[in-house]
């Protein structure tokens, strides 16, 4: 222990003697360690930390899949869920649920809140107790049951001021008087798409949508959460679900042919899509740390060369090789600990920026924080980093010829790179790692640009979208829904600056979709093999307002109402897949058994509904005035190319003129929807681009540092060359040639590594291959040019060496 304290004190004094040297190393390490800590915090919260429920490994999602066309993640119908509950022996609880949104009225103020409709079983399934009050019971979870709700702690605090008497009070939820029976703790994160915003839970059996679908086996709209019974494996449960699927196929061939059921662990269901990107980014910051370590090792090698006389004297006085290595490693660990401490501080600041910049659909984002595991990771990385960058300099410094070192005195080495092979290898490694990162970032940038240039199928500029959901109590029937929409469009069209207005139930690029099966009249298909398509309901002026081209036929008009022949407009993809080499106009689709056939009157261009990156899907449109919906989105095109958001106040007032109690929820431009649809890809690109840029800077600094040191060490030699007649270009060629040789070797190694590594990025790319030649070539050229610049600066300094001064250098 005494020797250790002595080493620490001596190391601290040595580092204090060179504050500039120490600061550069600590900063380089802090950037690498801080970046790794921040990204590991995200990976820890999203991928590694168990879900905040009791025995989360038993929690499963039940999904359907089609054996006919390979479609997965199919939601289930109410009758299928009821059969599953009756027949399953391996699942302890089976709980259907769905996301929900409504209006919370608190006096004169109203706000939009997100929640879920769930069965009473969901709470024992997740084994979570309320903070206050109770959860609703099975007796309350029945059609026509009492209007009760469980709210989140955040909603209780925000909307009700942490009222201790909230339990038993009635609140206005969706226009209904609803009794609060309980408050869930902040730790209760319900696993739906908007899990960080889920703030209330209502009984599912009382939901109108659940009641309407109770007897419709072909109406699939519910996600299903389940818990395995103790001792049951997922493989056993999947085997049982497959048997149940087969029985349902035999009993209900019209709706269940080809439908299989299987389990997915809840954690995997939540984070599976983001895992590849997060692991790639974690690997990228690991590369950055390795490059930083290589830089620091180069600096320590240079410093060790200047300390050879000190080390020789200590050896002559009896210090063994291990004693020298231990002393130098102690100094390295001191640097690493300081770098780790500063890195942890940088990570704390950077994590807030990272969370703020993260896409809204990043799961478990609210759980991202620095915790004990992250702190342990930072300590481990700091120690390993200190050993990694300190070992090579310590070994090299301790391996010396005592007699030669003492005779050399203060003479610098003139053997150039031959005595600095380790430093040269470190620079090659830096360049190679940097090239891999730069190529990865380049691929993501090219992919993102390609995605941005992809047409969504409509003109997104100057369009404002307005979410105006109609309450079931105020607009219970189709006539009132259609009348409101017609008046709202008329009033909005009178707002100054508005060019055209229309309505649609589901906005493009919003991620919302509603797929429905159909058949062509006169073309029977086997049960379970009916084609499906996105189903939208629009007003007559929708296509003109959105800039969706009419390819053939006509659009809807004001005469297409409920008492006229029912009509439908289909997309280009639907026409191509279902009417090859024939004219679809005039043919009829059977969409709903309870309605007459829909005659095809037009064909329009394809539109991307889920995200900009998803392929176009077959789609059909029905007239809003024939098939009204309570889900209403107004789309408003501005008359001039100004910011459509400037129309918000006028549009809000126009809606209020139709119904002063109607809530206007979300108002966003279509460009915002477009930006949100690519938010996750933008986030990945920005992070990898940032770390690649840092790696490029570190690599350039490494090359520059090596060449500067080489020039310093070879001052005597260079002076002799100049004295003997060497020209400026000869000196530049010598210095640049040495540096570029290392850079080109690094580029070659990096290209080979990139060809192998970038293949794991294939799932993150769009419209670009993982071995895109243009990206590989452009990035390699960029790195070579930067390396050339890093070599030219010390080369020019070498040309200014005074031969007389250099000859006196000895």
Describe the 3D structure.
By secondary structure, this protein is α+β, with helices and mostly antiparallel strands. It is built from 25 helices and 23 strands. Strands 14, 15, 16, 17, 18, 19, 20 and 21 form an eight-stranded mixed beta sheet that branches. A six-stranded mixed barrel has the order 3-4-9-6-8-7. Strands 13-22-12-23 form a four-stranded antiparallel beta sheet. Helix 2 crosses helix 12, helix 15 packs across helix 24 and helix 16 packs across helix 19. The longest helix is centred in the middle third of the chain and has 37 residues. It is elongated, with a radius of gyration of 34 Å. The two termini are 43 Å apart.
Task: Please summarize what this structure is.
The protein has 810 residues and is of the alpha+beta class.
Radius of gyration, Cα only, in angstroms? 34 Å
DSSP E strands, number: 23
Strand content: 15-25%
User: What percentage of residues falls in helices of 4 or more residues?
Assistant: 40-55%
Summing up helix and strand content along with how strands pair, one would put the structural category as: alpha+beta
Largest sheet: 8 strands, mixed
Overall shape: it is elongated
Count up the helices. 25
Distance between the termini: 43 Å
Low-confidence stretches: 408-419
Mean pLDDT: 83
């Amino acid at each position: 222990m005494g020797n250790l304290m002595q080493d620490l004190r001596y190391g601290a004094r040595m580092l204090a003697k060179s504050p500039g040297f120490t600061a550069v190393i600590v900063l380089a390490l802090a950037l690498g360690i801080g970046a790794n800590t921040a990204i590991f915090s995200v990976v820890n919260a999203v991928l590694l930390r168990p879900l905040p429920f009791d025995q989360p490994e038993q929690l499963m999602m039940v999904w359907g899949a089609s054996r006919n066309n390979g479609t997965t993640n199919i939601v289930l119908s109410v009758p299928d869920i009821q059969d599953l509950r009756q027949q399953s022996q391996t699942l302890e609880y089976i709980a259907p649920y769905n996301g929900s949104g409504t209006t919370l009225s608190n006096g004169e103020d109203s706000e939009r809140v997100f929640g879920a409709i769930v069965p009473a079983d969901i709470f024992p399934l997740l084994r979570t107790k309320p903070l206050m009050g109770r959860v609703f019971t099975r007796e309350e979870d029945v059609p026509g049951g009492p209007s009760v709700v469980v709210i989140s702690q955040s909603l209780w605090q925000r909307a009700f001021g942490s009222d201790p008497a909230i339990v038993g009070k009635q609140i206005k939820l969706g226009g209904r008087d609803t009794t609060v029976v309980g408050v869930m703790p902040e730790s209760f994160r319900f696993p739906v798409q908007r899990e960080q915003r889920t703030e209330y839970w209502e009984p599912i059996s009382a939901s109108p949508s659940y009641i309407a679908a109770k007897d419709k086996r072909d109406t699939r709209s519910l996600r299903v959460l389940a818990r395995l019974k103790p001792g049951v494996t997922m493989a056993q449960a999947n085997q049982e679900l497959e048997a149940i699927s087969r029985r349902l196929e035999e009993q209900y061939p019209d709706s269940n042919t080809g439908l299989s059921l299987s389990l997915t662990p809840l954690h995997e269901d939540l984070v599976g899509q983001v895992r590849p990107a997060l692991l790639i980014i974690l690997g990228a910051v690991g590369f950055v740390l390795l490059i930083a370590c290589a830089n620091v090792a180069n600096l320590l090698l240079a410093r060790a060369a200047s300390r050879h006389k000190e080390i020789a004297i200590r050896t002559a006085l009896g210090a063994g090789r291990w004693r020298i290595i231990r002393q130098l490693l102690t100094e390295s660990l001191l640097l690493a600990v300081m770098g780790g401490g500063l890195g942890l501080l940088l990570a704390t600041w950077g994590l807030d920026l990272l969370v703020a910049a993260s896409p809204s659909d990043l799961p478990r984002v609210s759980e991202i924080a620095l915790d004990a595991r992250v702190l342990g990771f930072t300590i481990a990385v700091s120690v390993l980093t200190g050993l990694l960058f300190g070992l090579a300099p310590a070994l090299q410094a301790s391996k010396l010829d005592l007699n030669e070192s003492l005779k050399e005195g203060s003479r610098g080495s003139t053997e150039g790179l031959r005595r600095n092979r380790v430093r040269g290898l470190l620079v090659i490694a830096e360049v190679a790692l940097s090239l891999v990162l730069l190529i990865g970032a380049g691929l993501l940038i090219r992919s993102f640009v390609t995605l941005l240039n992809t047409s969504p199928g409509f003109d997104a500029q100057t369009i404002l979208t307005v979410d105006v959901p109609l309450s079931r109590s105020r607009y219970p029937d189709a006539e009132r829904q259609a009348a409101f929409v017609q008046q709202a469009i008329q009033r909005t069209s009178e707002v100054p600056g508005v060019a055209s207005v229309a309505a649609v139930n589901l906005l493009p690029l919003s991620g919302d979709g509603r797929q429905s099966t159909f058949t062509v009249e006169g073309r029977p298909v086997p049960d379970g093999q009916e084609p499906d398509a996105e189903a939208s309901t629009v007003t007559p002026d929708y296509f003109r307002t959105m800039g969706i081209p009419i390819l053939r036929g006509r659009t809807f008009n004001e005469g297409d109402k409920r008492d006229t022949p029912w009509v439908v407009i289909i997309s280009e993809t639907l026409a191509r897949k279902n009417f090859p080499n024939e004219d679809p106009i005039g043919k009829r689709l059977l969409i709903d058994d309870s309605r007459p056939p829909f005659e095809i009157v037009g064909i329009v261009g394809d539109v991307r509904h889920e995200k900009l990156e998803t392929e176009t899907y077959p789609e059909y449109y029905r007239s809003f005035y024939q098939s009204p919906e309570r889900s209403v989105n107004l789309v408003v095109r501005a008359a001039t190319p100004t910011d459509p958001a400037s129309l918000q106040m006028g549009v809000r007032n126009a809606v209020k003129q139709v119904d002063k109690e109607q809530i206007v929820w979300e108002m966003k431009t279509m460009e915002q929807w477009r930006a949100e649809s690519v938010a996750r890809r933008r986030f990945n690109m920005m992070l990898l681009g940032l770390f690649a840029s840092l790696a490029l800077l570190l690599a350039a600094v490494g090359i520059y540092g090596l060449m500067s040191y080489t020039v310093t060490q070879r001052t005597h030699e260079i002076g002799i060359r100049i004295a003997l007649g060497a020209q400026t270009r000869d000196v530049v060629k010598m210095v640049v040639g040495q540096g570029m040789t290392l850079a080109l070797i690094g580029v070659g190694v990096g290209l080979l590594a990139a060809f192998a590594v970038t293949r794991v990025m294939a799932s993150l790319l769009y419209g670009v291959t993982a071995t895109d030649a243009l990206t590989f070539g452009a990035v390699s050229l960029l790195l070579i040019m930067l390396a050339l610049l890093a070599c030219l600066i010390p080369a020019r300094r070498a040309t200014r060496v005074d031969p007389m001064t250099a000859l006196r250098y000895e």
